[in-house]
Amino acid sequence: MHGKRILLTGAGGGIGSQLASMLSDRGAALCLTDINEQALQRCRESITTDDIHMVAADIFNTADRQRIVDETLQHLGGIDILINAAGINPFGVYAEQDAALIQRTIEINTISPMLLVRAVLPVMLEQNSGQIVNIGSTFGSIGFAWFSAYSASKFAMRGFSQALRRELAETGIDVQYIAPRAVKTAINSQAVYDMAAAVKMNMDEPDEVARMIISKIHKREKESHLGFPESLFVRINAIFPGLVDRAVRSQNRVAHEHAKKTG
Ligand SMILES: NC(=O)c1ccc[n+]([C@@H]2O[C@H](COP(=O)([O-])OP(=O)(O)OC[C@H]3O[C@@H](n4cnc5c(N)ncnc54)[C@H](OP(=O)(O)O)[C@@H]3O)[C@@H](O)[C@H]2O)c1
Fold it and tell me: What is the pTM of this model?
């Protein structure tokens, strides 16, 4: 990572702030962005190097996105790695979810990272090198009850990553999709934590997840599913979804009780 010029979204978040601090320790030059200015500032304060630029911005806003790219180029002189880590994760009964929240989920988790990739690609094509890293989720391969909009947003990012990877195969640009399982961060509401405890869902610490993500970036792995047995379930679900339907039936009923409590 030494000397790599990295643009990281969601840098104020649980995984993003760990990534920022570890990438900085490894000698990367960073441009950190997040909509949450206070969280971004806290992330900045946890890093000791000066070689960091911050942009408080909403990645769904067109002008903000352009500002993120412009300031990154101005401060870093290029972009070697874009890490799309910003996101939101509404949990609840789909039929009762606010339509605006469903739309926002796709806007933030899917459309915004796709458009940010579109904005940095000309720079990477000009360099003929680069890495685009899209942070997905286990729910981007296994459709999870009560996370329908979120699952849809991450399935889309996995498809986008695969298609673009193939499109860029003759260039020096790699597209990676890295999918953590559940992680203990603020993206998950108390209802999610309660549900996770009730169904005994594995939840990782954000620092271990950040370490795994950096290792996958380093190895330029195309598609990575973090955590076992979730990585195996991803494969089983792809081939025998009916088996998984039956296996998760009782878990879904328990999770439903928690999903009903959210708006
Ligand atoms: N935690 C998990 O269980 C888990 C599991 C698998 C995958 N992931 C993925 O990992 C990534 C990082 O998630 P995390 O767990 O670190 O969550 P997090 O702590 O909530 O961090 C996400 C960050 O993105 C920011 N953000 C939200 N909307 C934005 C926007 N419009 N523009 C710019 N920034 C925005 C959030 O700001 P606010 O605080 O203001 O919302 C937050 O600081 C996400 O893509 C998530 O889907 C997470």
Answer: 0.97
Could you tell me which residues come within 8 angstroms of residue 61 by beta carbon, excluding any fewer than 6 positions away? none
Does ligand 1 have an atom closer than 6 angstroms to the CB of 13?
Answer: yes
How many structural domains is the chain composed of? Answer: 1
3-class SS shares of the chain: helix, strand, coil, % to 5: 55, 15, 30
Among 48, 18, 16, 15, residue whose Cα is nearest residue 33: 16
pLDDT at res. 50: 79
Indicate which atom in ligand 1 lies nearest the CA of residue 36. 40
pLDDT at position 133 is 98
How many angstroms is it from 240 CA to the middle of ligand 1?
Answer: 30
Q: How far is the CA of 17 from the centre of ligand 1 (A)?
A: 10
Does the annotation count 150 as an active-site position? Answer: yes
Q: For residue 103, what is the domain's CATH number?
A: 3.40.50.720
Domain membership of residue 19 as a residue range: 5-259
34 C-beta closer than 6 A to ligand 1:
yes
Predicted local confidence at residue 263, as pLDDT:
58
Low pLDDT (below 70) residues in the chain? 263
